[in-house]
Amino acid sequence: LLAAARARGIPARRLGRDLLHLGQGHRQRRLFNTRSDRAGPLGDWAAGDRDLLRTLLACAGVPCAREPATQEHFRALVAGGQLAAILRWSPGPQGNAQDGPAADVSGLVHPQVAARARDAAAALGLDVAEVRLVADDIAQPLESQGGQVTEVIPAPPLDPFLEAAPAAPVAELVLEALFPVGQTGRIPVIAVTGTNG
User: Fold this and answer.
1) H or E, element range at 75
2) Percent of the chain surpassing pLDDT 90
3) Which residues contact 99 (CB under 8 A, 6 or more apart)?
4) What separation in angstroms does the CA of 79 have from each of 4, 82, 119, 146?
5) Pick from 39, 50, 81, 112: most CB atoms within 10 A?
6) Which DSSP helix (H) or strand (E) runs through 14?
């Protein structure tokens, strides 16, 4: 993210291990472990409350899991309303994404699967989110195969996506979610010099 910000001319610096400071003055943004300072508490609250999450997803027309799934597991990274990358992964015994290997399947995703991932992030009001889902075949719509969204992560780690999908524009899309194209987060400085009289 720092490299992508600097490439776009956005002032960027690290304020600790997981906190980035981007932009200047009233145009500045802070990003904590990919959680934007603009995101409200709804995403965190809903992500931690399974019943509320299912209700919000159902209201948005997103199929959601109500029981343990036996299909393949996928992790979709959504940033700024776009699908940045999607990985096939093998969850560990506790469902921990870090326990299993991941493979980039971004080129195989059906447009309706990408749309459901975007809808899930939007239903929680998140600029950046990881949407976990299950499906038999990621190249087919979720509804036609009983595929479902199982979880929405409000502040996802980017490392698995950057490592498994190095060609995907992950950092760029996360940055665009914070600073749309054409914005640099900079404040113009005007100086007046001279003497009076």
Assistant:
1) strand 72-79
2) 30
3) 90, 91, 92, 93
4) 14, 5, 12, 25
5) 39
6) strand 12-14
